């Protein structure tokens, strides 16, 4: 099996409501879709959602890098040879994990289709039967966040992820308001997205929040401040998760050496796709660290890829891949049984792409094929 052609679509996915986190407000999500065609006519899809705040990649740069450098490298290659393909990409380009993830995911999709098995069967087989879906609360007033949580509880959600990270005391009020509204039996995790900046601010906040029984606190300090994470972990009792600080293997090594977090949020867009995500999960598992799969708010394609990883590994104890639930239009049909997700048993990612929607959402596109 050889890769014959790669089409690259720069799309914008329309959001139902703006997505507001500490460092940005999104009205729509810019994404890149890769369509891989093999010589025997099989098709696989991949996705890159670049986040300049996290990995330094932009939508435009990811498109250019795929078009000019990475896609041409893979033409004529066997999509089954993951170790070699990643080495080839890594030798050609340092970092750029989202761009590499798009090609990695498309290869897994097409290999699953070739072998007639879901992607999770390529990753060790299904371990989890289903995961609960956590509803993400965008940053708003304490009253608005509490009201949103209350209305989602009525839909069956029993777990919330609060986005905070603007100003410490305002955030404390937000978290207190949601806890008061939903009661003590509902799970709440808090993602600060680096917004409390340092350990001093974080410890100040947590002194007021420790008794609220939060599931965990995610990335309160700036991404590179591993020592800050170590200090917060030592001086507070709420479990601590690293997200933006943990991208690839080097970060995981430092995290393990310093014991800088109890949990890690692995994202295909931060580490370069399914194949490196599995390596990170193995590293974490050996160090006794729990894993979550998260996303950059991706379509059905990127989200399904994340789910296949999560479903195949015991080390993954939570998932946050709710992109498709946030879009008013999606290119694929990944199915959620809110408030749970189960994966189907269809080959590859198990997602059908609606090409007419793909073309509707496309801003620009290109095709790379054999020379
Ligand atoms: Mg996060």
From TrEMBL:
Mandelate racemase/muconate lactonizing enzyme C-terminal domain mapped to chain residues: 142-239
Cofactor(s) the protein needs: Mg(2+)
Gene3D superfamilies from the UniProt entry: Enolase-like C-terminal domain (3.20.20.120), Enolase-like, N-terminal domain (3.30.390.10)
Cofactor: record remark: Binds 1 Mg(2+) ion per subunit.
Pfam families per record: MR_MLE_C, MR_MLE_N
A GO BP annotation: peptide metabolic process
Catalytic activity, EC: 5.1.1.-
SMART domains given in the database record: MR_MLE
Binding site for Mg(2+): 191, 218, 243
A GO MF label: magnesium ion binding
Active site positions, chain numbering: 163 (proton acceptor), 267 (proton acceptor)
UniProt keyword annotations, A-Z: Isomerase, Magnesium, Metal-binding
Enzyme class: isomerase
SUPFAM superfamilies, sorted: Enolase C-terminal domain-like (SSF51604), Enolase N-terminal domain-like (SSF54826)
Family assignment from sequence similarity: Belongs to the mandelate racemase/muconate lactonizing enzyme family.
Protein name: Dipeptide epimerase
Organism the protein comes from: Psychrobacillus lasiicapitis
